[in-house]
């Protein structure tokens, strides 16, 4: 805290106020309004009736909703574990020095900048069962062709491939940030003690980058739960409802069937989950600041 | 000496080979994806559905790009995207830079936490109420509805990056100016903002990328006239299921601006994202 100069009243509220008003309008207002909507039967025609917890009750007996929760869990577990694992390995690789590191790292992070809809489009073409290039590549290495997104069994793992391709770079960047801040002393000491590379990783690197890994893990969880664009463009929840996640379910209820109140109830549940994870993230972030 | 020397040399070579193998495995999916997209966009329809697939276009053509512009009104959607992303980024900067400054000075981490949570919550959770609100206001099918909604993306990113930037700036220059009688606004405008320019660049780039890439706001709130590029590309998919050339060309056109920015500003993006752990 800096000491205020004499005679100067330091009031920083005017700087924050305009943004705060906008945030209240476009973010906080929708939150509150969603809560309000979730206890109403709300049609797009504008007919509104108060129904109490009826939407929630209905939701908990809706088999399609349960199914979407299971799909979300399946998708999320894979779409968190794989990117975090591969991202950690990638960060260790890109932390080392080699020729062309800048360019190669640039290429590696390009997927996460690419427009999701366009990404989904190109993958859709690659997944084509007869003419898709991926089945050709599988054939080259002697593997049988896959049905990719056209089969209820393979659709979610296939969507996970897209997600891993798309978002592993973000994990890599977060971990790389941790690696860049590592102190050199423990390594020098370990070198003298004759520690192996694995021992150094296990006992020095890993504990020191653990906070970054935690942040990556939570961010990935939130983003996997939120995944929408690529799933919607590639499968729209299909075949049948085999890849219908909570987010797709919610979108269809709201904007295909226009059951806005019902969809709002899904948002409320979804939201509670994400807020809990966000608070956890803030907690971890704060803790890492104290340690630093 | 020779045996030990030999052994350590072999180990170094093996280590190097292992490293390059890992690098190859890591970057090849990205390289393959982008090259395949380019290949599809430059080939004729006949070459695109050839089996086995043709990788290098035998007779490269720009016909797919011409077709996309001619048949799908892409020029208009491009303009819409520029207006929405440009407007939301500009407004986001005007709101977010002072807000980041104020939050940094007040050390209001709780308030900043609320903004952070805004970035975490699914876009769809804002959309239903905003959809209804815009219906009441008669703003559905208006570009303004999209600009306002995109503030949900741009404001949190900008505030977050700017808060970090201003926190890292030295306070003494501003203190000296304030003692000399400068107002807070002057101190902000004439001292803090010029010093924070690198942070402003990062915030602008990230805000541009995530607003440009957004799909779901456009699909719900955009009408026929106010479609943004990602939505327009999605429509190309639904109407021309097997026209791979135009599809790939459309995909390339949407991605081109963000990929160019990524290549030019790679360093700033890496810094911004590692510091904030942010993305849309």
Low-pLDDT segments, ≥5 res of chain A: 1-5
Largest interface: chains, residues each: A-B, 96 and 98 residues
Please provide the ordered H/E string of secondary-structure elements of chain A.
HEEHHHHHHHHHHH
Radius of gyration of chain A: 24 Å
Structural class designation of chain A: mainly alpha
Helix content of chain A: over 70%
Biggest sheet record of chain A:
2 strands, antiparallel
CATH topology grouping of chain A: MetI-like fold
Question: Which structural class best describes the helix and strand composition of chain B?
Answer: mainly alpha
Order of helices and strands of chain B: HHHHHHHHHHHHHH
Strand content of chain A: under 5%
CATH topology of the largest domain in chain B: MetI-like fold
> Count the helices of chain B. How many?
14
Number of strands of chain A: 2
What does it look like?
- The complex is a heterodimer of chains A (292) and B (280).
- Chain A is built from twelve helices and two strands.
- Chain A is mainly alpha-helical.
- Chain B is mainly alpha-helical and 280 residues long.
- Chain B is built from 14 helices and no strands.
- The longest helix of chain B is centred in the N-terminal third of the chain and has 41 residues, at 2-42.
- The model of chain B has no long low-confidence stretch (mean pLDDT 87).
List the helices and strands and how they pair.
The complex is a heterodimer of chains A (292) and B (280).
Chain A: H1 13-38, E1 40-42, E2 48-50, H2 54-60, H3 63-95, H4 101-113, H5 116-126, H6 133-140, H7 155-180, H8 185-193, H9 197-226, H10 229-234, H11 246-255, H12 260-291
Antiparallel strand pairs in A: 1-2
Helix pairs in contact in A: 1-12, 2-12, 3-7, 3-9, 3-11, 4-7, 7-9, 9-12, 11-12
Chain B: H1 2-42, H2 45-48, H3 63-72, H4 74-106, H5 109-120, H6 124-137, H7 143-167, H8 172-179, H9 184-195, H10 197-213, H11 216-221, H12 229-239, H13 244-264, H14 266-276
Helix pairs in contact in B: 1-13, 3-13, 4-7, 4-10, 5-7, 7-10, 8-9, 10-13, 10-14, 12-13
